[in-house]
Amino acid sequence: MNDNETLQEKLTRISAMVKKETIQIFRDPSSLAIAIVLPVFLLLIFGYGVSLDARHVPIAVVADSRTSASEGFVAGLRQSPWFVPRSYPNIHEAIGALKRKDVDGILWLREDFGRSIQSFRTQGVDVVVNGVDDNTARLVEGYLTNTWATWIGLRNLRGRTLTFQPVSLDVRIWFNPNSRSRDFLVPGLIAVIMTLIGALLTSMVIAREWERGTLESLFSTPVTIGEILIGKFIPYFILGMIGMGVSVTMGRVLFAVPLRGTLLVLLICSALFLTTALGMGLVISTISKNQFVAGQIAIVFTFLPAFILSGFIFDIHSMPLFIRVITHLIPASYFVTILQSVFLAGNIPGIIIPNAITLFLFSVFLFGVLIRISRKRIL
Predict the structure, then answer these.
(1) Is residue 199 within 8 Å of residue 298, measured between CB atoms?
(2) Any residues with CB less than 8 A from the CB of 262 and at least 6 apart, and which?
């Protein structure tokens, strides 16, 4: 009977803490802004502003002789969504345009282009690409190669064989058949946003209590440190999940990102990661005791590593070994992998389960640290 009364008392104190923190959230609009307005703003900015696709790239075209072959190839370029061809009378003017950054590449069809085509050679084609931006340069090179292969295929279909092709390539792109970088970036962006939201929501919670002197008053009540942490965690967890729902809805409706996995898996993994993010914020808040300092620490130690080292934009496997080791300490890197799998490939147990377990272990570790350092401060 006493155990039941003790449990009832604990639940009463926790519900009172949850109610107190909920009232505080509605009194302080900044929490609502962080959870709901911030994801919308960041998704609009990064969703439309960050793209790894190169479309309508200006490219100089120099044709030393006008033949049916050269005119046909240039016409194929004009129909491509990747290029905006600009004709130049000679290679010298085209090089000048490249130096002035008027164009990003040069396609030079030499005088013997037509003869090279008929004799199964391609020595009559030169491509010059501006390599200052390596990513754009590789994209332009790849697009030109693809346009060339498409043009050759069309000529072959019309019975005008250009070259002997012993192997016929049937290219299939899995998981992102439209090759849209937005489909790849938006899931990763959601993980980065949730890192920022979770850390910011709770990084200033306990620090605010220290600044206002209300935490000492809580210490004088029968409420335990665990009940304080639970009471502060639950409202912000619900608020964070609302922000997650807003982000996923925007990704599906506004950016048309496919969701091939199930909502249940997405919900469970999101809850695990948000628990980790909130735990990081609570640890920061407990240590700093100052809202401004806590906010700065949250941005530097959670948002920036998640943005740079999570695989959201930069491929982890191309990083140096030392940096790759550090990425294993970034919870967002596991959530990015889960989201990209759930959105683009579906529920793949070999990817989702190990990463979800890792997020769970992160949560256990962070809340263990949180309880330990909080107890020390109380005593």
Answers:
(1) yes
(2) 342, 347
Contact 146, 61 (CB under 8 A): no
Tell me how far apart the alpha carbons of residues 84 and 93 are, in angstroms, rounded to a whole number. Answer: 17
Is the domain of 201 the same as that of 324?
A: yes
Question: What SS3 state is found at 159?
Answer: coil
- Whether the CB-CB separation of 307 and 192 falls below 8 Å is answered with yes
Residue 192 lies in a domain: yes
Q: Tell me, what amino acid is at 63?
A: A
pTM of the model: 0.79
Average confidence score pLDDT of the chain: 82
Axis-axis angle for helices 263-288, 205-212 (nearest 10): 30
Residues 349 and 261: beta-carbon distance below 8 Å: no
Give the pLDDT confidence score for residue 379 in this predicted structure. Answer: 42
Q: Are residues 199 and 245 in the same domain?
A: yes
Q: What is the CA angle 239-288-216, rounded to 5?
A: 80
| Measured distance CA(243)–CA(277) in Å, rounded | 13
